[in-house]
Please model this.
Amino acid sequence: MSTERISRFNKAHFLEDYGMLLVLGVLFLVCAIVSPYFLKPENLLNITRQISVSGIISIGMTFVIITGGIDLSVGSVLAFSTLMIAGFKGMGAFPAFVIAMALSMAFGLVTGILVTKGKLQAFIATLGMMTAVVGIGLTYSHGHPIIGTPEGLSFLGQGKVLGIPVQTILFTLTAIIAGIVLNRTRLGRYIYAVGGNEEGSRLSGIRVDRVKTAAYVISSALSGFAGIIMANHLNVGEANLGSGMELDAIASVAVGGTSLSGGRGGVVGTVIGVIIIGILNNFLNLINVPGYTQKIVKGAIIIIAVLAQSLQANRKK
Amino acid sequence: MTDQTILQMKNIVKTFPGVKALDNVTFSCRPGEVHALLGENGAGKSTLMKILSAAYRPDSGEIIFKNELFKHSNPIAAQKAGIGIIYQEFNLVPHMSVVENIFLGREPLIGCKLIDYRTMRDEAQKLLSGLGLTIDVNQKVKNLSVAQQQMVEIAKALSMNAELIVMDEPTATLTDREIEFLFGTIRTLRSQGKTIIYISHRLEEIFEVCDRVTILKDGKTVGTENVPDLDKDRMIKMMVGRTLGEYYPDRSTARKGDKVLEVRNITRKGVLNDISFSAYAGEILGISGLVGAGRTELARAIFGADSIDGGAVLIDENEVKINEPLKAIRLNIGFATEDRKGQGLILGLSVRKNISLAILPQLIKYGLIQPKKEKEVADRYMKILKIAAPGIDYPVKGLSGGNQQKVVLAKWLAKDCRIIILDEPTRGIDVGAKAEIYNLMRKLADQGKVIIMISSELPEVIGVSDRVLVMHSGKITGAFNADEVTEEKIMKCATGEVA
Ligand SMILES: Nc1ncnc2c1ncn2[C@@H]1O[C@H](COP(=O)(O)OP(=O)(O)OP(=O)(O)O)[C@@H](O)[C@H]1O
Ligand SMILES: [Mg+2]
Model:
């Protein structure tokens, strides 16, 4: 092909890649102008802490959504993990941590098997898991919250290093590692391939079932990890603690530009999505918007963000 | 024929991110003619036709259809205005039946609400039998072979009763028998005064059915000529800017190597019937047959993509169990599928990531993909196969059909398998690139590899293969050496006349 037909910079591409960053920038500016308190370092650090738990879940959700699935059980697994940390605090920090993580991952494994071997649709399989896991948690705790977490873990939820909340650091680390896994490892590449074309992946020698199962296990593991942080932050475990969190996570992923039909997206987008939703929450509180109205605004912004992306994608034709 | 025109496309410009696909293209058709559109892979043929059908919007330029400025913003409006199109990449809904696909969005109604299924079925049956295809029209499209899907696409376009019909590489996966039916249909349409725009890389077809030809190169019009005024060499010269030398590579004189692959009595109910053959190191084994003969199914069975009901596969005289593609790949077998969109490619991923997909395990160090090594591989095959794309990080869905096909080949060439099964390897590939791919296949064979080539193009099978197997309804009905094979012999076996 002759080189003159090829031009490097392209506006459409630029908008597609950085459009949400632009939205974030504008939102940031508006917040800074409207509320003087917004830009205070305490507030900004506080936002980063507030978004950490839901951010970690959203990153796990990103893996599943790229494979073309969805995971509605993240909130339940998170809550179950808070129960385990609180319930096994007597055994000490490390065993309690391991138990909470292991059981969370076991739930992911079950979901993965239901989706791949049982051929259930992800929506239904994880809807079932979502309900069942809450039920298991309620049974375990007799419906009561369990107060207290193991000695030596509370820094995960409450600690600070050089003034930066440990939660923020954990979220950042999770995002970096997840980014490396998705972009630089075989599993990551296979996750995109499977989400893009299952049959094509299989014929390229990819074990599709294993890749999908791995995504659910990762999602559950991160939910469990987020649960450990949350339990230590609140100093309590409770079976219903995570209700509704799956929806926030899905919204963050979608706002971040990861397509729900699979094969596209990534961690950077999700982190941007999480920050957008986090700033919005913070800002609406700062300017004293009542709770009910907040929901309306949040819903509208999510729809507008995703709508803008789809219009953008269609306009290129 | 008078000089009046039914269609004029003037100064069409279309850019995609990173590419100027059409650069001031002008193109016109007369009523009642079959007008060929020729050009190398990526020349802009499909893009021009998608602009005509309003699937794409041009950056600038105008279209005049039946003396009126044609300004439609979507394909349905263009369809209503009398333009039907058979896209190069299929647009059928896999989970719907053949009938439903043919009439999608235009279902005949009883009264004002209910769909008239009876009329729809009768109509569909009639259209398909006119094309020489007998299938159950209630069957789901996903269960059809690529060639059958192509026929359904053609039937769909015909059912629209359009005045101008665009056919973008309709014959790329068809065998001569279906092509004859299609040409019959085209001639009938022409005699009814309909206009047809015909795209193909098989030049013989242009001489057979087309009246005039317009040639595109690098997004620009080279010229329009009357077909009888041209010969093949001039046509090629206009397309690629030079003449081509010898088309098919010389067969190697070396003696046949050891037996590498042996297939023993493979059976898959209703599809494959007791198939046995062997393939030797250093040979290109062609497999010919009509659409539906079971060639692709045979390849899939060997590769472990479909399960088999009986029989065995042996490599180097040892029986191997291949129950999934990964096993086949580990045994050094590669399989480039004919259905590039559905099975060959991950459309949303870049050229680089598609090429490296089957060799990722080799590119890993400390658990991470080595980007430099990956880039090297992709660059190498971009160059060898002359894949026209703005870069290795361009998504394959933005490549022209022929260039996508090259990516499929690149993926399996990169894998460096010992046994390579190529299903319609040159589907949609232009004449220049075809010759290079034949050369490459020969080079691999000379290195001692086994190449199994399934092809519907008889001249290709005969020109390239050292040995030809012919299949008919799930059985092997003929085997010929290169020096004895002829088109007639193949056709006799392919139609089941000789068993
Ligand atoms: N949807 C798209 N997005 C980006 N680029 C595209 C898109 N469609 C086509 N192109 C580019 O436009 C150019 C022309 O492509 P087109 O599909 O029209 O070629 P073609 O002549 O039909 O080739 P072929 O013989 O391989 O089918 C190519 O360089 C291709 O990469
Ligand atoms: Mg094309």
Remarks:
- Chain A touches chain B through 33 residues (CB under 8 Å).
- Residues 37-316 of chain A form a domain with the ABC transporter involved in vitamin B12 uptake, BtuC fold (CATH 1.10.3470).
- The radius of gyration of chain A is 20 Å.
- Residues B 16, 19, 21, 39, 41-47, 88, 388-389, 398-403, 428, 430 surround adenosine-5'-triphosphate (ligand 1) (CB under 6 Å).
